[in-house]
């Protein structure tokens, strides 16, 4: 009788979509649930077909333009001529969408990319209900949500669930190679500690409200411009910069946020969006009531989309800056520039007009010499072993890293690669020990920086 009950429990677990300990069985498909998709990143998770994922995807959301926009993007992926996907979206819309998702248990992984004011609570309640979660950044936008997120991670560990955020920038090849060259002592030396005035690490990300995604002009929801719902710039896009700093400069090193992080300063400042610009982005005729407190002179929206933090991680001074503007100059788009200062060389990623607005990695030695060039040439072989075709081109100061186009798959493709990594963690149960504490450290950094910046204001 005991064995029969055990077999019955296993069968029920498969049909419910997840097992008690959330381990995905060898031949079991991953069953996705998309929850309240208000950001286009939710669709990008499904831009490519992944064989481990079942074609039926369950969507739970309130009625409105957000879910329609999401489904339109999925339809476009299904109908494209080249490499079409074959998703079947099974949609439930209603005010009780979240409770409906919990009750029906149609899948084993919940994908979240939308309103960030609600997201942390969605994460915690989904984990409590036994779902794995793949969440878009940010997973917390202020101190209160950070405490809730910590609780979600603790619950996930207890239930053996996988909670993970979508860090696409690790798959941008220039960032990857910046990390690789920084790991070569003969080339880079050691990361400089720097000072608050001259940090050892500097990164700046510039984004634009008006942009194209998957070949179409992006229509954003009005709440995207409410920092109480979307979060401020450093607490949103800045998550990527903090993740890259941790991942590139201190690879596989576990961070204790209570003792390894110290803050120097933080600040925030607004971007201004005119009513006509707001209409072009949201397709609305006016500002909603919840944005009225940010409206200046009736026609200008004040959005605290910009921020910077100057802090220490393991004693290294770091400065990270996020900026937002309405639209990019012709021929350009979202950009990211960074530099890691080493005792033997600086590793720059630049994305300006000289680089035709595409990221380019440079190696600029402190003391250029024949001996250094020989060391660089020798160490390049190790890089080429991992990334065949990578070469160096001599510049007036140092070298440009020449990267074959085959590695430049683009930002949208990186969502598929993150999802593949996440699926591997689900299958193998081998997420590195440093990932969770470093995610917690990441959101501690962003949310504490916000509190400091507001206190300064």
Q: How is this fold's topology laid out?
A:
Blueprint: H1 2-16, E1 32-35, H2 41-44, E2 56-61, H3 65-79, E3 88-93, H4 97-104, E4 109-112, H5 116-128, E5 132-135, H6 143-159, E6 163-165, H7 173-182, H8 185-188, E7 201-208, E8 212-213, E9 216-217, H9 227-230, H10 233-236, H11 238-249, H12 257-260, E10 261-274, H13 275-282, E11 295-296, E12 300-313, E13 316-325, E14 335-341, E15 345-350, E16 360-365, H14 370-386, E17 391-394, E18 399-402, H15 411-428, H16 435-456
Parallel strand pairs: 1-2, 1-4, 2-3, 4-5, 5-6, 7-13
Antiparallel strand pairs: 7-14, 8-9, 10-12, 11-12, 12-13, 14-15, 15-16, 16-18, 17-18
Helix pairs in contact: 5-6, 6-16, 7-11, 11-16
Give a structural overview.
By secondary structure, the chain is an alpha/beta fold. The protein has 2 domains: 2-165, Rossmann fold (3-Layer(aba) Sandwich), CATH 3.40.50.720; 170-411, 2-Layer Sandwich (Dihydrodipicolinate Reductase, domain 2), CATH 3.30.360. 38% of the residues lie in helices and 23% in strands. The strands form 3 sheets. Strands 7, 10, 11, 12, 13, 14, 15, 16, 17 and 18 form a 10-stranded mixed β-sheet that branches. Helix 3 links the parallel strand 2 and strand 3. Helix 5 runs parallel beside helix 6 and helix 7 packs parallel to helix 11 (238-249).
Estimated helix fraction: 25-40%
Given helix and strand content, the structural type is: alpha/beta
Low-confidence stretches: 1-22
Query: Compute the gyration radius: what is it?
Result: 23 Å
Mean pLDDT over the residues: 93
Beta-strand percentage? 15-25%
Termini gap? 68 Å
Which fold name is given in CATH as the topology of the largest domain?
Answer: Dihydrodipicolinate Reductase, domain 2
Number of strands: 18
Q: Give the overall form.
A: globular
CATH architecture of the largest domain: 2-Layer Sandwich
Provide a count of the helices.
16
For the sheet with most strands, the description reads: 10 strands, mixed
Question: What would CATH call the class of the largest domain?
Answer: Alpha Beta
Q: For this structure, what is the CATH homologous superfamily of the largest domain?
A: Dihydrodipicolinate Reductase, domain 2
Total domain modules: 2
């Amino acid at each position: 009788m005991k064995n029969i009950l055990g077999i019955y429990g296993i069968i029920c677990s498969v049909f419910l979509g997840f097992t008690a300990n959330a381990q995905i069985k060898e031949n079991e498909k991953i069953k996705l649930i998309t929850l309240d998709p208000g950001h286009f990143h939710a669709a990008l998770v499904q831009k490519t077909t992944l064989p481990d994922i079942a074609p039926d995807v369950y969507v739970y959301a309130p009625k409105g333009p957000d879910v329609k926009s999401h489904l339109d993007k999925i339809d476009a992926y299904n109908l494209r001529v080249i490499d079409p996907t074959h998703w079947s979206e099974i949609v439930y819309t209603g005010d009780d969408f979240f409770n409906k998702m919990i009750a029906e248990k149609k899948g084993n992984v919940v994908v979240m990319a939308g309103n960030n004011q609600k997201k942390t609570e969605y994460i915690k309640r989904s984990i409590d209900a036994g779902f794995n979660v793949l969440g878009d950044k940010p997973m917390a936008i202020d101190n209160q949500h950070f405490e809730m997120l910590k609780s979600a991670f603790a619950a996930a560990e207890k239930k053996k669930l996988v909670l993970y955020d979508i860090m696409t920038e690790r798959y941008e090849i220039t960032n990857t190679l910046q990390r690789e060259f920084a790991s070569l002592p003969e080339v880079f030396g050691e990361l400089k500690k720097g000072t608050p005035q001259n940090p050892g690490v500097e990164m700046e990300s510039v984004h634009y409200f008006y942009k194209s995604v998957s070949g179409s002009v992006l229509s954003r929801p009005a709440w995207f411009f409410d920092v109480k719902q979307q979060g401020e710039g450093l607490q949103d896009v800045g998550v990527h910069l903090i993740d890259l700093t941790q991942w590139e400069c201190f690879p596989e090193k576990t961070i204790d946020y209570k003792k390894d992080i110290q803050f120097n300063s933080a600040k925030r400042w607004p971007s201004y969006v005119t009513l006509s610009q707001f209409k072009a982005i949201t397709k609305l005729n006016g500002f909603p009531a919840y944005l009225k407190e940010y409206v200046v002179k009736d026609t200008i929206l004040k959005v605290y989309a910009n921020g910077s933090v100057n802090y220490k991680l393991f004693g290294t001074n770091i400065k990270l800056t996020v900026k937002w503007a309405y639209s990019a100059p012709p021929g350009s788009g979202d950009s990211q520039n960074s530099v890691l200062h080493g005792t033997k060389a600086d590793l720059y990623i630049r994305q300006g007009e000289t680089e035709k607005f595409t990221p380019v990695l440079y190696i600029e030695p402190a003391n250029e010499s024949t001996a250094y060039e020989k060391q660089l040439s020798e160490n390049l072989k190790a890089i080429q072993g991992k990334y065949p075709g990578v070469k160096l081109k001599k510049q007036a100061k140092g070298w440009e890293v020449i990267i074959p186009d085959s590695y430049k798959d683009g930002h949208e493709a990186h969502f598929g690669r993150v999802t593949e990594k996440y699926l591997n963690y689900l299958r193998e149960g081998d997420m590195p020990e440093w990932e969770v504490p470093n995610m917690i450290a990441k959101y501690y950094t962003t949310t504490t920086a916000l509190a400091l910046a507001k206190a300064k204001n």
